[in-house]
Amino acid sequence: MPTSDQNADRLSGPVYAEISRHLMSRRAALGVFGAVGATGLLAACGGGGSTTTAGGSNGGGTKRAGGDLKIVRAQDSVSMDKTMVFSNASIWVYQQIYETLLMNAQDGKSVKPWLAESYTTSADKLTWTFKLRSSVKFSNGQPMTSADVKFSLDKASSTKGGWEFINSAIKEVKAPDPLTVVITTKYPWAPLLADLACPSNGIIPNNYGGKTAQEFYAAPIGTGPFVWDTWTKGSSITLKKNTTYWQPGKPALDSVTWQVVADDNARSLMVQGGQAHINENPPFSTLDQLRAASGVKVDVFPSTRTDYVLMNQTKKPYDDVHVRRAISYAIDRQSLLKSVLYNNGKAANSVFMPTVPYYDASTPGLQYDMAKAKAEMAQSSVPKGFSTTYLASSGDSTDAAIAQILQASLKELGITMNIQNGDPSAVHDLQNKLDYEISHSYWTMDIADPDELAQFALDPTTGGHSFNTGHNNKQLIDLVHQAQRTFDTAQRQKLYSQIQTMAANDAFLGFLYYQPMPYARQASVEGFQVLPSGSYHIEDVYLTA
């Protein structure tokens, strides 16, 4: 989702209410999960995925039982309320406590069975029946039943200003017996399986286990591999091992702590010196130095993070498609890759990213071409240029680099771009209110289906204001709705290819680049894998002797 560093890291680039849905099952399958997305069968349940991505190798030392893992990060979590918070720094913690009926697979393009072991669908694609695992208990020892699932999904669907958009197609959830859940949708909805794997749909005890919502989220309970311990806000969160976890032999660790260390250099030194095991998101400028450090490994995981330039169409002259196209053509993406990502990453060609289903590599987007940029300006309402203000987040080196490179390029078009810095949380709020002219944001997906981003960025009726740009293309919106209700994968690909081409030509966003997720870790840490959404399974992590 979009994310501001204050409230989400997923747009997790700015973080606003996003929208997601999911994969299609082309045929009902009794006892096994059906075909999903563009990638075929759902993966078998295996505890989070051990497939090696770039870096992150598994094996290489003698596995030792126990241990206290420490992860250092720049920002603290915001809340453990899974239905309201969009902060990546929160999600990546609470996913170790709450689990979902299905789980994103390691490839980011499919889902796999988790708390549900199978499902069937009706011929009209309106009724989905899920069979729950019989061995799952909450960390307080109570068995998980369909009543807990119904309560959890109902609560996630009824928030205001939270993740309720994810479940907008759900009409009703029933619990006919303790191990059966029946979900009825308002209309055929292809993204449902992916939606159920969204972190907001994590399963918690019915009626909050007898507590109020506020009391529950202060010390939450789930079925996951770790249980709540302590949170010193602004400093650290610690979770302890769930000794009755339903997956035998997991987790190996005794505890995991996320410690807030704002200084980039200090985090690197802590991993090199053995005071921390994992450094979350070290600057790309430091990766070569970390690779050279003794006992340190650097992993660069494929991700769904995509950065964009936002152009507010409620402000002139950004309502002019020729102005927007001119700016998109004028963005020197290769300079950004070099100065921001140190050549880690790839120029973006689509509103979607290569790590989600239905991405179309053949959609060219509007790539850097100053001659085309000048031609578009000549056709615009302001052929001689204009003055504008770029809203930037203070203290954000990435934002500063993007602003400076864009400022230099736009001068060639006669556009004078002033840079206004603001507190990141204030910038997020101004973007959300469409009270800006041009700015920067980014997105990371939460589900294995493009519908989350398609809704947020392309359908202004869903609460995302078309990625806070005010864009409103009726034909594009209609294509998004068709894709949501299409189960045939070939037809759905055709629709999403049209969507990607049309979104690029509308140029309401300047697609910048696809960014991987860097991590540095001590060599003694094994089994640490980051999914394209940015989440990870600590139950698979262990320390070696």
Low-confidence stretches: 4-55
CATH superfamily of the domain at 303-516: Dipeptide-binding Protein, Domain 3
Broad structural category: alpha+beta
Q: What is the overall pLDDT average?
A: 89
What gap, in angstroms, lies between the N and C termini? 39 Å
Report the total helices: 15
Largest sheet: 11 strands, mixed
Write down how many β-strands occur, each being a DSSP E stretch of 2 or more residues: 22
CATH architectural arrangement of the domain at 303-516 = Roll
The level of helicity is: 25-40%
CATH class of the domain at 303-516: Alpha Beta
Rg (CA only): 23 Å
Explain what you see.
The protein contains 15 helices and 22 strands. By secondary structure, it is of the alpha+beta class. It has a domain at 303-516: Dipeptide-binding Protein, domain 3 (Roll). The strands form five sheets. Strands 4, 11, 12, 13, 14, 15, 16, 17, 18, 19 and 20 form an eleven-stranded mixed β-sheet that branches. It has a four-stranded antiparallel β-sheet with strand order 7-8-10-9, covered by helices on one side.
